[in-house]
Amino acid sequence: MKALVKEKAEPGLWLADVPEPRPGPADVLIRVLRTGICGTDLHIRSWDGWAREAVSTPLVLGHEFVGEVAAVGGEVQTVAVGDLVSGEGHLVCGECRNCLAGRRHLCRGTIGLGVGRDGAFAEYVALPATNVWAHRTPVDLDVAAIFDPFGNAVHTALSFPAVGEDVLITGAGPIGVMAAAVVRHAGARNVVVTDVSEPRLELARKAGASLALNVSTATVADAQRELGLREGFDIGLEMSGRPEAMRDMLDNMTHGGRIAMLGLPAEEFAVDWARIVTSMITVKGIYGREMYETWYAMSVLLEGGLDISPVITGRYDYRDFDAAFDEAASARSGKIILDWTV
Question: Which domains does the chain have, with CATH numbers?
């Protein structure tokens, strides 16, 4: 079968013929229809410091996908051939304290699809049935392909009750934009999204942001004044991993404010811990999705009318992967989709 492979320990990707995966008795074989390009995939393509530490070559990339079940193992009863499915890309051990307690998203032995094992940028992918999410109601294929990052947005955005709250989101990448749509749908009063990319800020406006703020020309304090906020933001969603964004967020939170932090910093940085303590601010780290409460919430949000399709800005034949990756790396786009059906 055709697959996008990191064949060599150097920058680049290769479209190659690889063996079709063989599912075990508890596994599901999925014919891939669409995939989404993630920042993780960009790191592996460029072969940066993180990728050199995390990835062993050769490796089939990809963890954002939707497909059709082609075969199931003899022990599988939860999905059937023909089902439309996406997949949870974190494969857990099932044996540690957190897994046994049902907190699988906290498993210390997690293996990432398309990072620690062959992924979904291929004509077929195999997954344990416990990692397969079947779409039981109609869903657009492009949207179903990005359930993984949509789940990051939902997990972060719904970490704290948002009804009637003023929310600050730092970082208008695709996950930040989807988070804006989620908190607006969940009843937030004001949703401010910050970035320095005007194309991405425009996506945030389309997603329902009350104010999309270019912090190269204005400040978060300016946004507070424009919206008439007297005491600061109630909830912060940090999506950028930028030190200055986190510091700005802390400076503009109300006392007792709550921050969910998804953005991964490139290195350690200092924050004003005295302010966190004296303002009694809660900071919660977010990684991945809760299995499978977040997945349930995603499906229900879409059934309830949430539209995240504006975040998808590019669609490519998988054979045009170089152009697709170039657009995804431009910091001007939203989500980029590869079509594996052509």
Answer: 2-146+308-339 (3.90.180.10), 152-285 (3.40.50.720)
The dihedral built from the CA positions of residue 290, 293, 296 and 298, taken in this order, carries a sign that is negative
Report how far residue 180's alpha carbon sits from residue 162's, in angstroms, rounded to the nearest whole number: 11
Q: In whole angstroms, what separates CA 124 from the centre of its chain?
A: 22
Reported confidence tier of residue 266, pLDDT bands at 50, 70, 90: confident
* Percent share of the chain, pLDDT over 90: 98
Q: How far apart are CA 342 and CA 213, in angstroms?
A: 39
Binding site listing: 38, 63-64, 93, 96, 99, 107, 175, 195, 200, 262-264, 286-287
What are the structure tokens assigned to 77, written together? 């009863």
Please enumerate in sequence order all residues whose Cβ is within 8 A of that of 228, keeping only pairs 6 or more positions apart, or say none: none
* Structure-block tokens of residue 111: 């293996």
Mean pLDDT across the chain, nearest whole number? 96
* Helix (H), strand (E) at residue 69: strand 64-72
- Binding site for NAD(+), by residue number, is 175, 195, 200, 262-264, 286-287
260: nearest Cα among 300, 292, 299, 287? 287
Residue 178 to residue 209: CA distance in whole angstroms: 10
pLDDT (tens digit per residue) in 124-182: 999 999 999 999 999 999 999 999 999 999 999 999 999 999 999 999 999 999 999 99
Closest CA to 82 of 29, 126, 118: 29
- Judge contact between 245 and 223, C-beta under 8 A: no
Residues, the chain, total? 342
Phi, psi (rounded to 5 degrees) for 74: -65, -20
Which residues carry out catalysis? 40, 43
Per-residue pLDDT, 342: 83
